[in-house]
């Protein structure tokens, strides 16, 4: 027990030596646990009756929704207040004039007024997934079982807060759903209506990507940057995908000036670093591998 | 608070405008939470003593198993009844004559009679993983730590219900384990004995894939469709992999008529859209990349 | 009910026929649930205040740390004792002389003395991630939201126990974080300071890989083996990556004798099975795909 | 296992033979678990910040209160609907015309409008307890630690629903707090302002008891009925206690016509079955026991 | 922290000095937590649908009951095995010949065959409560809200195990329900059909009490012993109450030879140490207290 | 929903009008929930292995105890700090000079040094209960099933903090165990070694009571005050019970100057307001009730 007691002291010293600690005396950060809770609550507000075991009946839908909205508003206000305070103290942001708490509550109130619009957009994403996957048997199946839809739903929420310059939280939201689906969409990415990701594992969509309407992408697609220099953080580093584009599995499209023109199709495993005109098919040259009998 | 109250009303209206809601007045769906519970229970029935902290001793194994079987049977009957009712009301399926509840209970009873056979097949998968991975130190390590094995175990359960045309649930099972392992096997795929997936992240195996015995595949392998038109949903769109085939990481094999012949080896990153004869090695042509000194 | 009762009997028989069971009469294995608990506790000891909702203030930091260390020490001792006993009984390992419990406690005590050093190394990994990703806005963001950092943190813990030849547990740790991040690092891999994995889904790093300092890798990179014969399990089968190397997404580097020389850059999707000299750029030949207008 | 299987069948038969079962095909009852939840929620609404660990700050008090009110309103509506439906089907009550659900929601909405008044009355009870007990050090101590106050608080809630003729629920509330405090107040009892019960274990206050203002009673006091004939259930069977009366421990006062006049004091262990005039002291005659040296 | 570390050592020493410790090296006792679980399970088996929120429907009643019976059988077998082993090692009891585990399982199997009969007797207790309390509005109210019924139900279970000489567990059951209701019935007491306790707080019924049919008792009644000498532990020390007796609140009846004859009524607060003939009223003499105006 | 929204506003206003609210802007109180947690932890430290389901083995007893002590120390420090701050701000107490946090930690550290002594005293209470109750079959039965022992154990802890003038917490501890056992011992009471309470429901022991060694009391006993005037709060208002006294059920002993002399026995239901000499028997006069045949 003595050695363990010494390790405790050594650890407490190490907290001063190597940072990596976040306590009340320093700026107070939003917790991952709370953000997960909030996402679960928002999921239930957006898709009522789909994922919980207790089903809302018509009669109690008003009360249930009111309860959920106020609970989520309280939790969101707390976490956003923390993240704004963090930025205010570390100088990236300023709530001066009105204070972090009031700013947090204003953002939250505004967010809830936008939620019906977010639901409208998501209903288009659901329809796109149903149309886009021959294996999909019903709209309900898309809602209960498609990871791509979950990733897009969280992205549309995270993106809202990203645009309002809420620190940390949008990124935490993205990483939570990345962990669950293997789909990594940076909250900064701008994504149009009727977006569909199939299978999805390994998809990466960078911060300054712009995606149009009716775009469909498959597992393992990267929409990335050519350069990763820290001082280019504020420039557009990721590609633009215009309306009605399809990108098959494993394709990689890089660069802030790269534009995939409207209606084009990018084949599987293709590597693109320059723009592609509209209505173009891009595919890997055949005959690139060798067949040989096992001896 | 006033703005939030207005948002509540706007959300309730939006529930009528944009659907995406599932309440008691509509058809009642199986919940993801319940399916996760059921999978955990089945896991404990299949691998008793491996994942829970409370170990079954010899004496209480009978009581423990009986409790688990009856609990899981009750939960499964409820969820299957919901999914059958959903289909009956939306016209894809009919339990007429005997009713959804009775049909659900018959499926569940039959399922449990098949479970010992599923355990037999899984014991072959465990053995294949142990043989196939030099890093595996023991059979027990495979059971407690191999995501490939988890994915196959859930697939063999989900496939049982897929064959019986239970709606939604097989797909929900697949997506739950896809979320945990990054391995996306459609419950419709037919997979033979002694199947081994190593590492597994990014693997996609489509609905009409047929896989023989002793097949081994690595991370990032896609067994997919060439066409994704909705009206071809009922044809065989995914490849056939015969016995004793190995497919290395990142390979993509597409098309319902593509057959990889018995004993062949598909190399890493290979892209195949046509059949490969038995006992053939397929690999990427060398010299495809360029080396240049950094200036 | 009768059919279910028969299924219970059939299952109990099947436990004797097809193994896949772990009960008290056989060797007692560490449970996945306990290892997950232990990782959560260690995470809180390493990054205090970052992931839990209850924040440690300066005053209670000592008490909180002591409590966490003793709790984790107790749980770890129990699980390590189980895993050592398993090996002793199945002949891969011997605690003779001092017994499994004492050996377990010695390993645990030693582990905690090393934890401040592990924190020091992780603080370098955090800094590397912040420097390496233009999208990273703060050190705190890296800690709360980067899956690559989580994977490295768990690897550094798992590797400690791997080196001490603790069976099963290091591998279970790796698979838990693999499941959450899609990053699969074998606990045997040797990894230098200031390591950064971006996005990370699909990364595979094999058992005998050796990685230097300041190495940066992206999603979908495989550091793997050329041969997977069981009898070569004890040889170096995976590559060596020297200091200051960057490996872009989807690259595959195979073979125990393959060395990527100091300062080299491996481009996206490159397939390497032989050594690359220091300060070399390796990239995929251009013009490998075809553009064609959609008719 | 066979004998247990037979017992299961015997139990299921016994459910038909001896009733004592409540299932969905019969009337659906409010559950004790839900009523306990509701009482905890109402406690938090009435005494915010006193019993939970998460403290409401000024800023979030509105959001927290809204969330609690809507959650409790939803739960209460559900449970009251069940209890009204139970009565409608078993003929003691009728919601005809508007239906049980609407009736339930009307009662709940009205209840919440009365809650501020209930808080006002409870604040007088708190003050009475503080004045009445020399051992009370602060108002806060009364709120956090006096079982008498808890019992009165629950009574004032239960009585509200009793007056509106909600079946079962008021009685369930009373029994929940009876179980926790040993104080058994029938929800039908009418109790004036500034009521104080000290210690309280064993107190029984019957259905038709009427208690004035500023009454104080001690542990073991019974305010009961002389007759317990079922056909007198609708008459006043329990006593009337006028303003400013004190009743010491163990006293028993019985009978619907018994009136304890304003300002009187009933001594410990006194047995009263007839009225007592105002401003009277009643006490046990001295000299009723015998002292004898132990031999 | 140093002083706390010293206290830890002092406590560990104190465990050897002052006992009061129960660890694996000593005999393993049943845990209160497990017995509480078991009682909740048995409550659900006896009164299905009354106390849980998830209601059993007709269809799933068989599965639900089977699950509950097997779960409770497993838990009960474990706890009874512990308590038998405890007695075997400390010499009060002997399972020799068949062993504690087998003995435990035999007791449990037999218990479940008796459960339908226990339900039959409890249905008479419920009816007696409904008849006996003018305030009772329905049979359902008695089941959901009468602490007297809960206490009798637990007693009838505990008594079963007492008669089979299971150590510790019957007494733990009694104390659990004593804590919740204030009704203290020793598991050894023999109690006839149609027993009713109203209010109940403070009731004490001793180990060797014998109670007939149709007996009714009120709060604060003691059926106790005159002598409490340890060496008289095996004699009948508590009274006999014959059929159809009513005992009002606060009455005390003491002594193993005291018999309250059939049909008698014992008034409130009466103190009885000798037998009372059948059909007798016993009540406190009037005029025992003094009325005096407050000056 | 509108009416509920109005009720929310009315409630928030009522929080300002009628107090009964405790929020962060006001003094922060210890929570009942935390005190319950702390009592459960202390129970496990005092009686290791008796009430939890996870048994400490010899090997892990040190680690387990260390973890428990540090966890409880942290929680206790937090709650005591809150209660000291409450008093400091409301002027009953002053931590000036060292501050509430440091004072709290000093009290906690000292408390743990006294815990072995508290265990020694409790081992005598356990022995007294075993000797005093003929129905007790073993020492273990007393520990797992005697509410009197639980009440005394909590009292000895609460009294420690009462003596150190910690506000609120001692009283909260007493009320928690009062709620569970029906035994109401004020934390200020001074109680000697080898104290035994049998059955216990309804026992009340006042703040300034002094009890010697080897005292035994039964259910329903009150040791109370004659006067309850607020301005006499600081005088001795409750009786003194000397060594070796026994007090039977329902007896009431009142007054700060009342002394029950060493070795005396107070009979059931006796009412005492004056001192009783040593070695005296006090009992109720016989012949106080009337027997009469029913009609």
Automatic annotation (TrEMBL), chains A, B, C, D, E, F:
Molecular function terms, GO-annotated: serine O-acetyltransferase activity
Xref: Gene3D superfamilies: Hexapeptide repeat proteins, serine acetyltransferase, domain 1
Keywords linked to the UniProt accession: Acyltransferase, Amino-acid biosynthesis, Transferase
A GO biological-process term: amino acid biosynthetic process
InterPro entries: LbH_SAT (IPR045304), Ser_AcTrfase_N_sf (IPR042122), Serine_acetyltransferase (IPR053376), Trimer_LpxA-like_sf (IPR011004)
EC number: 2.3.1.30
Keyword Glycosyltransferase: no
Record carries keyword Acyltransferase: yes
Record protein name field: Serine O-acetyltransferase
Species, as recorded: Gracilinema caldarium (strain ATCC 51460 / DSM 7334 / H1)
Lineage of the species this protein comes from: Bacteria, Pseudomonadati, Spirochaetota, Spirochaetia, Spirochaetales
